[in-house]
Amino acid sequence: MLHVTEEPSAEADVIVVGAGLAGLTATRELKDAGWTVKTLEARERVGGRLKGLDLGNGKAVDLGGEYFGDKSTMIAETAKSVGITGFRSYDEGERLTFVNGRRHAYSGLFPWRMGPAAIADLGQAILKIERLAKQVPPDGPWNAPNAEKLDSQTLWSWMQRNVTTATARAFITMMIEAAFCTRPSDVSLMHVLYYANASGGFRYLLEVSGGIQRYRFDGGAHSIPKRLAAKLPDEVRTGAPVRRIEQRSDSVVVSGPGFEYRGRWVVVAIPVTLAGRIDYAPALPGYRDQFTQRLPAGSAMKCLAVYDEPFWRADGLSGQITSSDGPFRVAFDTSPADGSPGVMSAFVTGSAARKLTRLTPAERRTAVLDGLVAGLGPKAGKPREFVEQNWLDEEFTRGCYHGWGPPGLYTAFGPALREPIGRIHWAGTESGVHQMGSMGGAVDSGRRVARELFARAAEERGEESKPDTTITEAVGRGR
Amino acid sequence: MLHVTEEPSAEADVIVVGAGLAGLTATRELKDAGWTVKTLEARERVGGRLKGLDLGNGKAVDLGGEYFGDKSTMIAETAKSVGITGFRSYDEGERLTFVNGRRHAYSGLFPWRMGPAAIADLGQAILKIERLAKQVPPDGPWNAPNAEKLDSQTLWSWMQRNVTTATARAFITMMIEAAFCTRPSDVSLMHVLYYANASGGFRYLLEVSGGIQRYRFDGGAHSIPKRLAAKLPDEVRTGAPVRRIEQRSDSVVVSGPGFEYRGRWVVVAIPVTLAGRIDYAPALPGYRDQFTQRLPAGSAMKCLAVYDEPFWRADGLSGQITSSDGPFRVAFDTSPADGSPGVMSAFVTGSAARKLTRLTPAERRTAVLDGLVAGLGPKAGKPREFVEQNWLDEEFTRGCYHGWGPPGLYTAFGPALREPIGRIHWAGTESGVHQMGSMGGAVDSGRRVARELFARAAEERGEESKPDTTITEAVGRGR
């Protein structure tokens, strides 16, 4: 893996923009098929929305993407292929939730002590969402039977009609902000259903042991792209923010400050909103450009507090805290597998992120630690280390966990998500099918673009290309 | 006015990015106060969303912004200051509307023959919108009393509850697509109210003689920026797409391919979505960046058919055609003041634009002419010239008429609309108050940034700066 200044120009069959999971997966697939590839990464590190925090003593935790579940087959496969396995998330003891100012300790999925009316309301709402979600195909949500209706309203509007108690509304809002990093008032009902279905179900999305938070990766999820990149030393080039993509009749020229790479095709494997900022020549057609104007990234920061030990476990607490109006929407015990040191990760998402990003780092630290103290007691206020990862501020990410559709996006512009433009192919988790928006979606999209390019090459050679059945396979496996 | 290659570097007090109405207004205001200014325009022409079509014989019509009304005081003032006056839009004869496949000829605002139930429904809905709009302050819609509620739903959701007949729904959808270039399902209820109030009222927005379509400019609206620029030969530089803005402790460096300008401050006066694509160093704070991810431009094309004469007038037709499901949402007689030649302008907006932009220019021409024939008869199918202006495809605009807020934007990120970031100030019609989103908003924003800079300079000199009262003035004048 070289810095781009060591190789300011090169030629390859394919130039890949971005060395996150999507770009690295595409790179590996293409290389394995004997193609030449050069992968340009803006940062000095690979991994995109997967990023590590070194704890010393050979231990590390995640400042970005972290969890996976039994249905997360693609990322588990990828991890295994580079020798990384998972371990169970810590999920013992009582959970805490702060809803509309009240603290509830509970076990199981729901805080039953919120009251029977709220719980019944919550239960029926989750069931309804679950049922609706099954109607939205992850490979083309715009093809859902009621697409126009599902995409014409916000989740907030749906909740106005389908959730009656204030407590259940607050609880769902909190869960949505934790899972989608945006408010029910911003996001299309269709997007919520689409994402839930692509992930393996709405309830699956919310659960820890029974859901997508069941496992974490030994050494951290960020070590997956690191190991992938380590096997691609001739391909990956860091410090290379791509600013311009020029398409010629038989080639592409991909360039940025001080570098210029040439290929037959280019794969753009960065978040949609960032893909929209590259200077394309010729300019992108309006349909794709307007699509990129409309798929923003979620608002998320992750704040890690490191303690000598996970003291809350001895107090009978799981470390899982949700909060409808505090400085974070959810916090988890993310200590290494052996429980040493103790690490709490607070997810400052949605409205909380939009508020806290306007404060100073010191003010944010105080706010987040106050929130942890409210749940875990005064010891939580004195971590030996506090690290914040503000994904909104990260120039080469600009939001987490994933991009989402405001009302109307998918029905008006959906096909732009994956349709190649000339010699440009699009990857990135937002264009994935299996677990779109998470690590699995990134892997899926990387595999897909490789297949697209194999088919193009076959076509150029005059061969009949096989139909692309893998999207269906992916959906089948994802559910 | 030089091409930037003739002056590849320069210094000035202020560098202005964009020579549309906003940038040119700021330039003039600053220059008049004795400041030095350099204004960098990406294109070879000035005017941004105002663009002309030369008809020969010294006549020209508009391919972009065109109309104004009695409340459009700021653009009228600006036009007058460069010797341009208005004339009455052609508004005689019958109007036509195609709603849900049925053709109605009518006079007055509403096609009464749509039936009494639909008309009553339409009337009450417009009244309700009008009343709600008054609650949304154009200088800060997020400060409206029911801001959260108004911004948490699409206009579609509001219509589900407040408009009962299919015909009225189709009619309103058509009017929204014509006025906002997006569907009721995409746009925040708040945005519709905000824009309506900033414009002078919802009904005012829809009317011709009694509304914002009352007048057109002699020689075309596009001649206003042309004349403004002609008076700024030392300031305006064309062919200069700004790619990077670097802020230093006491200066800014604004650069693009082959040029580098230096100033004390910079005014970015381009559409919000394009402002988000510049490479800022240091990177913009997440709050502003995420704002730019969420304010897309409308979808609009304008197609002009030129005939020897406006033959429809002799047939007793006004040339005004609206259509709920045809290739355009509205068409107007936009012949020059003396009625020669005859010009029809078809506004392909919202869902129509998203559909037609995926066709070839030849297919679009056929579709639009077919629509005109359905209204005006077979003669409409044989124009002597047909010109399409696809604003989605324009690299340095990327949508018309203006940027709009999806649900949640203004309540979560609204203040980012105008808050300066270090030495960067923001202009452009989307940040205007008086008639935000139209020509008036551009002028207003240009004046505002000039005042912001005067206040900063006064502060630097140790003077107490006067409070900025002009926003209130503008709102007062706008209504």
How many beta strands in the DSSP annotation of chain A?
Answer: 21
| Biggest beta sheet summary of chain A | 9 strands, mixed
Strand content of chain A: 15-25%
Structural class of chain A: alpha/beta
What is the molecular shape of chain A?
globular
| Radius of gyration of chain A from CA coordinates | 22 Å
Produce the secondary structure layout.
The structure is a homodimer.
Chain A: E1 2-3, E2 9-17, H1 21-32, E3 37-40, E4 52-56, E5 59-62, E6 67-68, H2 73-81, E7 86-88, E8 94-99, E9 102-106, H3 116-133, H4 147-151, H5 155-162, H6 166-180, H7 189-199, H8 202-206, E10 215-217, H9 223-230, E11 236-238, E12 244-247, E13 252-256, E14 259-268, H10 272-275, E15 279-281, H11 286-293, E16 300-307, H12 311-314, E17 317-323, E18 330-333, E19 342-349, H13 351-356, H14 361-376, E20 385-390, H15 409-413, E21 424-426, H16 439-460, H17 470-478
Parallel strand pairs in A: 1-11, 2-3, 2-14, 3-11, 8-17, 12-15, 14-21
Antiparallel strand pairs in A: 4-5, 6-10, 7-10, 8-9, 12-13, 13-14, 16-19, 16-20, 17-18, 18-19
Helix pairs in contact in A: 1-9, 1-16, 2-16, 3-6, 3-7
